[in-house]
Every structure is written in structure tokens, then in C-alpha cells.
Amino acid sequence: MSSPTEGDWQKLKRLGRYLIGKPRLVLHFDYQVQISFLDSRVDTDHAGCIKTRKSTNGGALTFGKHCLKTWSTTQAVIVLSSGEAEYYGVVKGGSVLLGALSMAKDLGIDLKNRIYTDSSAAKGIASRRGLGKDSTHPCHPFVDSRTLECRRLQVI
């Protein structure tokens, strides 16, 4: 924080008071049998920011029961509907998943993939081929050209 406000200091003090006496966090990865899937679970908060009306993506990358990565990011664009916001969340989850799959392949591990979302609108938009008739939901070039056309990602 280059120029913290008085409110920022109050929030930091409150966090410090909360953390005093709390036990440390330990991540324990239990043994699991051979897993063949890398899963990305995504969700979106449409227009969650009151000031900018931008949506927020959140997700987790899991390998069986093990959580490998989590993220929460604000979308760069202001979307027109919750379906479009969820679709961009699926795109973010797909990009994280493709990066992890690429790293696994570099290590000699061949994995299948799945993206889980609770939005039927995002599933519908992601399953389209080409631009379609609905101009309010533009197809994202990353998903069209590199993933769904090649059927490299499975959206569930």
C-alpha cells in the first residue's frame, strides 16, 4: 500500500487483533490413489463491486482431494448479464486449467480435465460454435479458437 488511508489502517489493526492467538495453518495432503482428472471449479459474482459494477471470478484448481491453486480476480470488463459474467469465469478457470495441464504434461503426467460451474447460461455460451445469433454475449477468442473447437476442455 503506497498511500494507506485511515480506514486501511483500521482494517489492518482489526486483522492483527483477529490473528493474535490463532493457530497457524497447516496444509496436509493425504495419500490418494491414482487420479486421472485435474478439476477447475469456478463461480462468479455478477456486478459485485458497488463502485465500478465489475464482476468477480473465483475458483479452485483441484487434483482429487488436493487443492492446488485458488484465485479471486476482478473482471476487466463490465458485463451485461450474469450469464456473461459466469462465462468469463469459465474462461478464467479454463486458462488456469490449461496452464496446469501443460505443466503436468512437461512432467510426464497425462491428465484429463473438467471445469465445474453452476451456471447453465455459461455452459450454453461455452458450447456454442462460432459467433451465433446472440450479439450480447460475444464469444471469447481464447475459448473458441483454442479450446472448445479442439474439444480440449470439458465444461460440466
Structure description:
The chain is flat and about 50 Å long. By secondary structure, the chain is an alpha+beta fold. It has one domain (35-148): Nucleotidyltransferase, domain 5. The protein has helices at residues 6-19, 82-106, 120-127, 141-148, and strands at 37-45, 56-63, 66-74, 112-116. Strands 3-2-1-4 form a four-stranded mixed β-sheet, with helices on one face. Helix 2 crosses helix 3.
Fraction in helix: 25-40%
CATH fold assignment: Nucleotidyltransferase, domain 5
- CA-based gyration radius: 19 Å
Instruction: Estimate the mean pLDDT confidence.
Output: 82
- N to C succession of SSEs: HEEEHEHH
The CATH architecture assignment turns out to be 2-Layer Sandwich
User: Low-confidence parts, pLDDT < 50 over ≥5 residues?
Assistant: 144-150
Number of domains: 1
Outline of the structure:
This protein is an alpha+beta fold and 156 residues long. Helix content is 35%, strand content 20%. The chain is flat.
Task: Give the tags.
156 residues; alpha+beta; Nucleotidyltransferase, domain 5; four-stranded mixed beta sheet; 4 helices; 35% helix
